[in-house]
Amino acid sequence: MENLTSTEVAGSRTRFKRSRRWLARFSLRQVFVLVVAGGLLVPGVLFTLLMLDWRREELTRQFKAEQERVLETLALGLRQPLWDLSQNAGQPLVETAMKDPRIVSVRVDGSFPGEPFIVLRRPERHQGSVSTQVRPVHFGDQDIGKVIVEFDDGELRRRLGAQVREYVLLIGLELAVSLLFILLLLDSRFLHPLRRLTEQARALTDHDAPASPPWVRDDEIGDLGRQLEWARGELHRLFGELNDKNDALEQDIIERMQTEEALRASEAKYRELFLSNLDGICVVDLDGVVLDANPAMLTLVGVPAEQLVGQPLADFIVEAWRNYDDHMIVQRVLVDGHCGEYEIELQRPGDRPLPVSAKGVLMRDADGEPIGVWRILRDLTERKAAAVRMELAAKVFDNTAEAIMVIAPDNHITSVNRAFTDILGYSAEEVVGQSSSVLRDPLQDATLYENVNNQYINHGAWQGEVPFRRKSGEVFTAWVQVNVARDVTGRIGDVVTLIRDISDVKKAQERILHLARFDALTELPNRPYFRELTEDALQEARRHGEHRALLFVDLDHFKTINDSLGHDMGDQLLKEVATRLSEALRAGDVVGRLGGDEFVILLRNLEDGGDASYVAQRVLERLAQPFYLAEHELVVTPSLGIALYPSDGEDYDTLVRNADAAMYHAKENGRNTFRFYTADMNARAREILAVENQLRRALERDEFVLHYQPQVEMGSGRLVGAEALIRWQHPERGLLGPMQFIPIAEERGLIGAIGHWVLREACRQNRAWQDAGLPPIEVAVNLSAMQFHRRDLTEDITTILRESGLEARWLALEVTESVIVQDVEATVATLAALKSLGLKLAIDDFGTGYSSLSYLKRFKVDKLKIDRSFVMDVPGDADDSAITRAIVNLSRNLGLQVIAEGVETAEQWHFLKHEACDEVQGYLVSRPLPSQDMALRLQQGNWQVPTS
Known about the structure:
948 residues; single chain; 22% strand; alpha+beta; 30 helices
């Protein structure tokens, strides 16, 4: 029993030692915290477990009570429905109970066998375990059924879990607060004093440690601290006395060593400064003889040391400067002890004089007596060159054509040149000292200028375009070059800014760009720029699935106006047309000029073709109003062709080509209208283009021929003339009449060359008939509007008559009424010039135009030609008969001959003869005849006049 007890005691001691070794691993504070935390945590955990057990029982009792209450409510509420066997009456109560999330299912069974009376089950899964409760349903003394309810205790478990978290959080919070207060108390009353005692103990080994604050505590720790502080103070005093004695001894030794070292260092420093100084230094005695010289002095005089030392310094000074140098030494240095800088020149062997600045300092001995002179010389070559450069730079600065502005690092202007004043309007006094921001454009975003500043600060230089504001407030664009000067440390110094006014250059560039994009006459987009705008619009339409349209606009008979009134008047008309076209468009639409009288309009934002027709109608209405140019009133009609995107083409070239074809279709349908593109128009357009190309070759290949329609005198039936009518002997299509190609020739500008050929051929043929001995007759030639209004018409006809040899009296020129009334004054002059040649003049298609009869008396013509439209229905049509009769009477009263064309019946002949018409032509007399057939007709003589 005793051995067993001894063993237990030994084991207890071992375990105690192990515990001590384990505890030794921790600091005093950590051990204390572990003990306190354990003391607080164990009671808290036990209390929490007790509270949780009590709370679990409380919640379980509450859950069971709520189950009983639900069962009781259902048993009471379902008595009547079970008695009456009415499911509809009991269903609402069961559905209400099912709203409780804890109920999984409710089943109501009756006393009768078979299916349950009511069954409702929650479809979702339950969260906890399910318990089933049954309650019978009584009605009076009878048992009529039972209620079976399944409850889910998931809600109970959730509440218990929440309660656990709540108690754990509460216990943790209480433990943390308690532990904090305990640690604060431990640190202030126990740990902090122990640390202070430790520091005092350490101070005993360090006699230089400062004194500790006095202890105010009266307990054992305070007494111990005060004793330690007394011991530290005594030790500090003893060591201080010993150190003072040692320091005094060491100081004496150090001062003697420093004095000796200072003497050696001073001498070495003097010698080092003397030898390494960049200025020439020499020592001369009172007689001016050189005693010593540094290398810089040897370089200045250009001789080695042995040639300088021992020689008078005056021997190396240019003779003209010796007296001045001697005067400065004697009168200034020897009197005042020193003198300021003055300039002399040194004579170097074999070299030109060297300008130097000289200074002198008197040397004295220990008694203050003069013993020599320090001579200090400095090369002035670079300084003088720098002065010259500075003077030159100043002249360049003031006289350069570019504005120069120097800006300090603080962004204030330090100087400007004259060009700055000329360009920006500020005088130097107005801007020097001001911030450079005074020159900024106030409407410009400030970030632009900040970006410029960042660029030249980061890169040291910058150049580019910057807007500046003049003193007058005008803003202009300048080309700016900025260069930054930095010191040796890399810090930014002055910023030099060169400013060149490029506003005129910018305007010129903008003008060049404008001329490259816009028509110079109408200011509308030209062909390339309009193409670019259209292609952009088509790309946008392709992205968004939108519609576009191109309207091709061509002015009807513009060439007639241009040729008759001159190109200046035509240009004015085009400008007015451009203005009206722009006014007729909607917002977003664009009109451009392709060239000549061709315009094209881009329509955006189209719903359908109706929008395009609306714009086309507006264009027709605007251009239908008369144009008033100078003294002329002009009416110009357009023909419009419309091509739609994407139905009529998906690219610019296709749309323009199809719109052009539609425009020609509009011309063929009476002009002054618009037409939408259709597939057959493209074929027609190709045909017109082919005809145009063939027409150009027809002149070269001599494919045109003239037919002549005879004109007879009504009184005698004598053949007195013939009208020359052009035909085209087409190599593939045979003989073509004028209506098949003349409109195309007029539209494409070929009518001038064709008309010239007709004149020349008619005159040649008439002369050939006369040379063949045939009776001479007048040959009438129709002049187009372009021919008639040409300034060189008279000269051209004179040349043709001379070359053909035909007398002018055998040539008659026919001009339509609509042509000669376009410019009355010019027409009168042209007719007078033609009459002076001796040829005959006739007004063709008289009565179909819109001229005033008052002009007729001013026109020096010989004949009036009644249009076939009036002759074809006489004498049956009273109106045509009256008009024809009026024209004949008007001609007789004015002394003019009258000729009727289109006479095809004997009735028409007799009516005209009765009205005293002079001449006729038409199928009744003869169809147009080739030249050889016409020659046979001339041989036959008079024509047989129809009998009544």
